[in-house]
């Protein structure tokens, strides 16, 4: 037997292959959009992928379950509560699968979503591991506020938080101490709020260290779980819907993205996403462009700033990065939104450098806009009287920024402020000077 963990660092996502050497077969759990790593693993083991299990319709990434079904004939398993549109076999509590001498048993574990399941792996007559999806994480549990307006079954956050309380205690905590815990996400995901950097654990270790498994009343647990959850990116409900239907195969979808030579001529209010480093962007860019830099969280912020179905232009510094970004967009189903993709060398619009010396002496002479999450701004304020408008809300709320003084945009390290200052500059450039504090914020924060 082999349990192989795949990691997508950009989305802090874990997927799994369970391999039986007896029958040379593999079952996958929660696969990401690109099927290539799974096919390569199967080939390396000289094995066949015979099944794919979805623990729930994911909100933060597009799953490849339907493409894997097309490519390998693998049967797809999910909870009957999902209301899946793709060919599938219901896999709910009481159901089990055999893979050689491995048995996979379904547990209904609602809380993150009404249709969440966990999968217990039994080998040699003993429970060895549990794949917890977005129910139990390492150091945390799944957030309960993503299915109020998405999916086949909707549920309010209070109801789901109460269900999470019992799923954790009555379904998972009762497993053996040495049972390995394999979650669908690690630190950095927006599907929880305080995950560990570890990629696996045990029931015993989580019983000691995970706040969500500590003795508490239902009411206290619900209050804590609902407090200070991260923002919900715009794309989350969209991805739930796609995953319930099954996404189009990746390669044909990528081939439909229009790649053009030369920079696009913007049409109307179509957004331009310029992924170059902030310094290059400030030296010259196209009018109204948003500087969303290519980095570890590009896809998350793309889906937080751009609404589902909203067309956008995608610009990169070279061909290699352009294709990398198109594939990142596809991870959240946003490749279909790309009106055109192109390599850019800049443009005529520039952004002035931050007058840092003057700002240090006279911060009161500037309107300071904090684009961190509201909880970050509240817990760790950096500037007195700063206007808090989280980055994911900035395009919609930019008119709240007064224009009587120059505007300085900041975050915690510079990535979000580059995007935020470009959004503000595009909206207010004719009214006031806009500056990006960038990574200089660190000298004020510490």
From TrEMBL:
Gene3D superfamilies: Rhodanese-like domain, Ribonuclease Z/Hydroxyacylglutathione hydrolase-like. GO terms for molecular function: metal ion binding; sulfur dioxygenase activity. It holds the Pfam family Rhodanese. InterPro entries: Metallo-B-lactamas, Mito_Persulfide_Diox, POD-like_MBL-fold, Rhodanese-like_dom, Rhodanese-like_dom_sf, RibonucZ/Hydroxyglut_hydro. Keywords: Metal-binding. GO terms for biological process: glutathione metabolic process; hydrogen sulfide metabolic process. It comes from the Bacteria. Residues 266-314, 362-443 form the Rhodanese domain. This is Glyoxylase, beta-lactamase superfamily II. It comes from Chitinophaga arvensicola.
């Amino acid at each position: 037997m082999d349990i192989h963990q795949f990691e997508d660092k950009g989305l802090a996502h874990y997927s799994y292959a369970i391999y039986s050497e007896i029958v040379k077969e593999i079952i996958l759990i929660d696969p990401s959009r690109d099927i290539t790593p799974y096919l390569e693993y199967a080939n390396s083991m000289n094995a066949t992928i015979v099944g794919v299990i979805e623990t729930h319709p994911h909100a933060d990434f597009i799953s490849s379950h339907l493409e894997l079904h097309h490519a390998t004939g693998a049967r797809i398993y999910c909870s009957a509560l999902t209301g899946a549109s793709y060919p599938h076999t219901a896999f709910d509590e009481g159901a089990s699968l055999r893979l050689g001498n491995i048995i996979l048993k379904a547990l209904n574990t609602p809380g993150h979503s009404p249709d969440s399941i966990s999968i217990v792996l039994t080998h040699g007559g003993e429970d060895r591991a549990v794949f917890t999806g977005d129910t139990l994480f390492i150091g945390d549990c799944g957030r309960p506020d993503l299915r109020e307006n998405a999916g086949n079954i909707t549920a309010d956050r209070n109801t789901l938080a109460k269900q999470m309380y019992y799923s954790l205690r009555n379904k998972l905590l009762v497993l053996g101490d040495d049972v390995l815990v394999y979650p669908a996400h690690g630190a950095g995901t927006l599907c929880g709020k305080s995950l560990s950097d570890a990629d696996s654990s045990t029931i015993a270790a989580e019983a000691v260290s995970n706040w969500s498994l500590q003795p508490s009343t239902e009411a206290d647990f619900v209050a804590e779980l609902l407090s200070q959850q991260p923002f919900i990116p715009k794309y989350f409900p969209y991805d739930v819907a796609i995953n319930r239907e099954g996404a189009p195969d990746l390669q044909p979808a990528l081939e439909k993205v229009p790649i053009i030579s030369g920079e696009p001529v913007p049409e109307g209010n179509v957004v331009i996403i310029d992924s170059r480093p902030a310094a290059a962007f400030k030296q010259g860019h196209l009018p109204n462009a948003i500087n969303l830099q290519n980095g570890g969280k590009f896809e998350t912020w793309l889906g937080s700033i751009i609404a589902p179905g909203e067309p956008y232009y995608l610009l990169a510094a070279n061909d290699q990065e352009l294709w990398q970004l198109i594939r990142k967009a596809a991870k959240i189903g946003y490749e279909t939104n790309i009106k055109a993709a192109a390599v850019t060398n800049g443009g005529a619009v520039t952004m002035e450098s931050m007058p840092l010396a003057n700002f240090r002496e006279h911060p009161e002479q500037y309107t300071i806009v904090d684009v961190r999450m509201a909880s970050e701004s509240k817990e760790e304020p950096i500037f007195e009287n700063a206007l808090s408008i989280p980055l994911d809300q900035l395009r919609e709320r930019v008119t709240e920024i007064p224009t009587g003084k120059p505007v300085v945009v900041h975050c915690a390290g510079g990535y979000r402020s580059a995007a935020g200052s470009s959004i503000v500059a595009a909206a207010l450039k004719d009214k006031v000077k806009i500056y990006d504090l960038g990574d200089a914020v660190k000298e004020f924060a510490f």
